[in-house]
Request: fold
Amino acid sequence: MLALVSPALLVILLLIVLPVGWLAWQSIYHDGFTLENYRRVFTEDIYWRSFALTFEISLAVTVIALLLGYPVAYLANSVPRGWSILILSLVVLPFWTSVLVRAYAWLALLQRTGVINQFLRYLEVISEPLALVHNTFGTVVATVHILLPFMVLPLYATMQKIPGDLMQAGASLGASPSLTFVRVFLPLSLPGVLAGCTMVFVLCLGFYITPELLGGGRTVMVSMLVSRNVELYNQFGAASAVAVVLLLSVLVIFFVVSRFISLDRVLGQR
Amino acid sequence: MMRASPARILLYVISALVLVYLIMPVLIIAPISFSGARFLSFPPPSFSTRWYQQYFSNPAWMQATRVTLTVAFLTVVIATPLGVAAAYAICQSKLRIMRIVHMALLLPLVVPIIITAVGIFFVYAKIGLVATMPGLVLANVMLGLPYVVISVLAGLQSFDPAQEMVARSLGMNRLRSFFAVTLPQIKSSVVAGGIFAFISAMDETIVALFISGGQYQPLTKRMFTALRDEIDPTIAAISTLMTAASFMLVLLATRLRRRNASC
Reply:
């Protein structure tokens, strides 16, 4: 049996474990051991600001995705099967469109001469085009769009397992629909909320394409810090240290979350 | 039947808006790609296929397309058997280490892709695999493996292993019984896993940005570079074709999966 897994395992070891290990090594070793790279990451302004910005954006994206995703998952769970399949297909459809294609679509929609600005000017709501892209706003709009399915699917999976009788029981005991929702349904859906939020937050931490294409150079997320240190400045040690800190953040989040819910629940959605 | 309370109506409205938000970008690309205008405008002032002509007559785009299709094809050919073998072993074996193996195979989904990309770039730079075809294919095999493993494991869960035992008790060896009994029954989840690996390789951008170069640049890398400079409607044409390809493949994969689930 071990012989059967070994080719796949070898690919994983050589192409992800070894490269990440290399990064970790490179972050502390350059003609001798050094913590200089980490000193820079933790003390220099540009690194700090980028990490802070990345966590802020990830938090905002997670909260928005939850607020948008919860109603959709709730609706999909409460309508007849045919409708819920339709809703879920609409959610998953963009999932299988290349992230790059969707970033391009958002550029087309949001730019100064883009679809939304032209439409708003046609309606004479605005006279000057709004700056919707090449800033943090555009980044967040596109990132939420890309990550929303990762929120809706675990939410829906959890809601499916909540027995409908419980709601009826609540109603029969005299609770109003909103009270049954708050006291019964919402608490029972929390594992799904946690799974969805974890996935969205973690994926957002490492997001690269949308901030690079829609951030206009001002929204420097951690992933861009890594790539610029490699491509522009040849600062391999610094890039590695940033990558290691990012990876550790992700692993810590997964570890903490795994104390509350099974990780299969978080990862099994794709 | 539930009465349409104000809360319920609000739920419908919000959900509808969210679904429009999800779908709009996917739908906007196709009309732009058929626009006759040089600059992006909506609705398009005239209908034309010039961006498609531009795409099909440009040698650089065509070369990139060949690279993408070759990489995606080779990825499927390599990742599918590796993934099937691994999933089968994970499912059959009771060794505790298999849980760790299972987790390891899902690593590509856990490690932020930018970190994987930079790490692979450093390793490739040492051994001379940057800007080569084998380098690109290997990276995509690694990224595609989890999809095959997840899909095949799901297929194996609905398969009764006793059937294979019967075949073996009748004198078939393990290999033959796998090909004669097990594989035909999990065929559709194998194909579905392969399709997802293909799409993953076709859409992969970030690793390619770091490790591909020269004549071995896939479509996504050229598109990314082009997007940084200007918005060329040729990209809308390519995007439309890519999206259409993805959707057809996903449709195929989900139909296969559903058929598999029913037997």
